[in-house]
Amino acid sequence: MRHPAGLPLELASLERTLVMGVVNVTPDSFSDGGRFLAPDAATAQARALAAAGADIIDVGGESTRPGAPRVGLDEELARVIPVIEQLAAEGMHVSVDTMRGAVAMEAVRAGACMVNDVSGGLGEPDMLPTIAELDVPYILMHWRGHSDVMTSLTEYDDVLSDVATELSQRVDAALALQVDPRRIVLDPGLGFAKDSKQNWVLLQGLETLKLLGRPLLIGASRKRFLGSLLAEPDGTPRAVFARDAATDAITAISAVHEVWAVRVHNVRASADAVRVAHAWLTGGDDESH
To answer: How far apart are CA 257 and CA 177, in angstroms?
Structure first.
């Protein structure tokens, strides 16, 4: 299954892994909190990401970094809807990063072409019924709890098997509420209720996760487990903005495994990595752009 149903034709025609660029319209995201809170700053960043090779712009108004507090519905709408309207008017393919059905509905009305839900329908009870009404792809992530508690939820018997099982259970819950199975994308949720070792096990298990029969999205960009891997001799984690090369390496690995998309902050090098991986897979016969 290469692409989910309902994807815009320009994206569905691509044979390579897609690149999703992140725009956090928040004051407190771990990577770039506050830089793009103003609508003009957010739209300018989205244009820069699109010019660098982003296929999709993922707009979120609520930080999901460890320990982050929830934001109110009205505030989330006020942050994301003007940005989505402007980007869609400029012809960009926009995803909304939200756990709320009400935000998903308004975002799609504003021009978003997909919904990225880090809670997999568990964060708010209105999400899955809303998705069932919308004719857009739905990214369903593995999730065990909100940001303020997720670091205490890392106990697994076998992280790869357990994550696959829990994702399957969330797919079943979505199908029970009439969500179109052809529109579902799965995300194993790197960094969400996983420690560093568990993230690497999940990345080793991409082929196993593909057996779930859904397109996969991988979001490793600048995450804590990369900072730990690249720590200084004294144990100090690599700074957030110095983790992009490691992110690009995971992009290349993901693209070789033909995942559906990668979600990244620094687009250009990851877009290059995708194209290199695709050329390697095809022997250069299909240089999809």
So the answer is: 31
Q: Are strands 184-187 and 94-97 parallel, antiparallel or unpaired?
A: unpaired
Query: For helices 39-52 and 267-282, what crossing angle results, to 10°?
Result: 30
Q: What is the pLDDT of residues 120-133, one digit of tens each?
A: 999 999 999 999 99
* 10 contacts: CB under 8 Å, gap ≥ 6: 93
How far is residue 10's CA from residue 8's CA, in Å, rounded to a whole number? Answer: 6
CA distance 96 to 82: 12
Q: What is the pLDDT of residues 127-162, one digit of tens each?
A: 999 999 998 999 999 999 887 788 889 999 999 999
Q: How far is CA 267 from CA 32, 57, 114, 287, in A?
A: 14, 10, 19, 18
**For the chain, what is the radius of gyration of the CA atoms?**
17
Q: Of how many residues is the chain composed?
A: 289
The residues annotated with a catalytic role in the active site are 223, 263
Reported pTM:
0.94
User: What is the Cα–Cα distance from 11 to 53, expressed in whole angstroms?
Assistant: 13
